[in-house]
Design goal:
alpha/beta, 5-stranded mixed β-sheet, 18 helices, 17 strands
Length: about 425
C-alpha cells in the first residue's frame, strides 16, 4: 500500500510539474533530470501523407528542449475517424498517444482508454484553446484530451464570376443552372444532409450510459420543421445543377466541403475563388440559414503504469498540441488551429477557408456522441427527397426514419 501511495504521489508531482507554461524554468530543468532516460513511445497520427514525418521532426524539437529525455518514437498513420474502433477492440495494445475525432471521446472515456490530464494541464488547455475546442475535449465538464485542430466542419466554395448572391440558395441554384455549372452538395451523406434539418431547428441528440450503450434519443426530424427541411432538399436535389459528389470540382460553380479540399478549390476557381458560410433557403416565404456539423480533432494519452513515462507523455502531448506545432501543421496542411494565439497569427487570419468556417460556426451544431447506425439511416433522407413526387412521399420518408432510429434503442424506447 505504501509503495502504491508513493507511486501515485510521484505521478501527481511529475504531472503537476509538466502541465504549466511552455517556458523553461529551474523547476522544469530539475524535473527533466528526474525524468532523464530513454522512453519508447508509440503514436498514431493522421494518415495524411507527410503528417508522420512532421511529427517525427516535432518530437526531435521536443528532445532538443529537453535533452535529458530521449524518445524512441514509433509513428503510424491511422485515420482519426477509425481510431476509437481500433483502440476499443484492445485498449491494452493501443498506442501511448493517439489522435481521434471528438465524437469518439465518450466511448474512449468509458473504456478507460484515456489518461485524464492533470489539473494544471486542464487549466492550460482551457486558457490556450477556444471554448468550442475545450468543450469538444470534455465529458460532463471534465477534460480528457488535448485539442489538436478546430477545423472539422464545412462551408461553401464558389466562383465569384458566376454566383451573384452567395447568401441565397435559390439565387445560387438559378446562377448555376443559367451557366450550366454544378452545385455540389453531399446530400447522400448524413454529415452534410443534416445541414437542412439544423437550419429549421431539428436535432438528433443521443443518450449514453456508463457502459457506452445508447439508451435514448431526442430526435425531432419527423416534425413540421423536418418536413420543411425535406422540401428544401427536394428543390435542390431535383435541380439539373445539383450533384451529390462534393469531393470533386469538375464543372462546379459551388462546392459545399471543408478545408481538406482547400487546395482543390484554389486550383479549380483560381482568381475567382470565393469562400463563405452556407447560404439560406426559403420555404413558404420564410428564410432558414443552413446549419452544419462542427467538430475537432483531439490527441489523447493511454493510461500508463509507469508514472515517469506518464509524465513524459503529458509533456510531449502538450508540446505536440501547442501553438508552435499547430502553426507548423497549418503551414503544411492548412489544419485550422484550436490554439488561440495560433488563430490570431497573420497567416491563419488571412486564410479564406478558415474565415468561412468561422462564419459558419455561428450556425453549426457540435457533433456529439451519435449511434453508429444513424449515419446510414439518415443519409437515405437525401435520396428520398430527390425521388419524392409529392409532400406525402416526403412525410413517409420522415415517418420511416423515426421508426428505424427508435428501433435501435433497447425495447424500442
Amino acid at each position: 500500500m505504501k509503495k502504491l501511495l508513493a507511486t501515485l504521489l510521484l505521478c501527481a508531482t511529475l504531472l503537476t510539474i509538466f502541465t504549466g507554461c511552455q517556458k523553461r524554468s529551474a523547476t522544469e530543468n530539475s524535473a527533466d533530470n528526474e525524468l532523464s532516460g530513454t522512453y519508447s513511445v508509440t503514436l498514431w497520427v493522421s494518415e495524411v501523407d507527410g503528417v508522420a514525418a512532421m511529427t517525427k521532426k516535432q518530437i526531435e524539437a521536443f528532445q532538443t528542449a529537453h535533452p535529458d529525455i530521449q524518445i524512441k518514437a514509433s509513428i503510424e498513420g491511422v485515420a482519426e475517424a477509425d481510431a476509437a474502433n481500433k483502440i476499443l477492440t484492445d485498449v491494452a495494445s493501443a498506442p501511448d498517444i493517439y489522435c481521434f475525432a471528438q465524437d469518439q471521446l465518450a466511448r474512449l472515456v468509458q473504456a478507460a482508454a484515456l489518461a485524464m490530464p492533470g489539473q494544471q494541464a486542464q487549466q492550460f488547455i482551457r486558457e490556450n484553446n477556444d471554448a468550442a475546442s475545450v468543450e469538444a475535449a470534455s465529458v460532463a465538464g471534465q477534460i480528457y484530451a488535448y485539442p489538436l485542430t478546430a477545423d472539422n466542419g464545412y462551408y461553401m466554395y464558389y466562383d465569384t464570376s458566376i454566383i451573384s448572391n452567395p447568401d441565397d440558395l435559390d439565387a445560387i441554384i438559378a446562377d448555376c443552372e443559367a451557366h450550366g455549372k454544378k452545385l455540389r452538395f453531399g446530400l447522400e451523406d448524413a454529415w452534410f444532409m443534416a445541414s437542412f434539418f439544423f437550419a429549421t431547428g431539428c436535432r438528433s441528440q443521443w443518450d449514453m450510459n456508463a457502459q457506452g450503450q445508447f439508451t435514448g434519443v431526442q430526435d425531432n426530424f419527423n416534425s413540421p420543421e423536418g418536413l420543411i427541411a425535406m422540401q428544401a432538399m427536394q428543390k435542390l436535389s431535383q435541380s439539373k445543377a445539383y450533384d451529390a459528389n462534393n469531393n470533386i470540382f469538375t464543372d462546379a460553380a459551388v462546392v459545399i466541403t471543408g478545408i481538406w479540399n482547400a487546395n482543390a478549390a484554389q486550383a479549380h476557381f483560381g482568381k475567382n475563388l470565393g469562400a463563405t458560410d452556407l447560404p439560406s433557403f426559403t420555404v413558404d416565404g420564410k428564410s432558414y440559414h443552413l446549419g452544419s456539423f462542427t467538430g475537432n480533432k483531439l490527441m489523447g494519452i493511454k493510461p500508463q503504469s509507469d508514472p515517469k513515462k506518464a509524465a513524459v507523455l503529458a509533456l510531449l502531448t502538450q508540446y505536440l498540441t501547442g501553438e508552435t506545432c499547430q502553426l507548423e501543421r497549418y503551414g503544411q496542411f492548412q489544419w485550422g488551429p484550436s490554439n488561440l494565439s495560433a488563430q490570431k497569427s497573420p497567416e491563419v487570419a488571412r486564410n479564406v477557408s478558415l474565415s468561412a468556417l468561422a462564419k459558419q460556426k455561428e450556425y453549426a451544431v457540435l457533433q456529439g456522441q451519435i449511434h453508429g447506425s444513424w449515419w446510414d439511416i439518415a443519409k437515405v433522407l437525401g435520396a428520398q427527397a430527390k425521388a419524392a413526387k409529392n409532400t406525402q412521399d416526403l412525410q413517409k420518408a420522415l415517418t420511416d426514419y423515426e421508426a428505424t432510429i427508435t428501433g435501435l434503442l433497447p425495447h424500442g424506447n
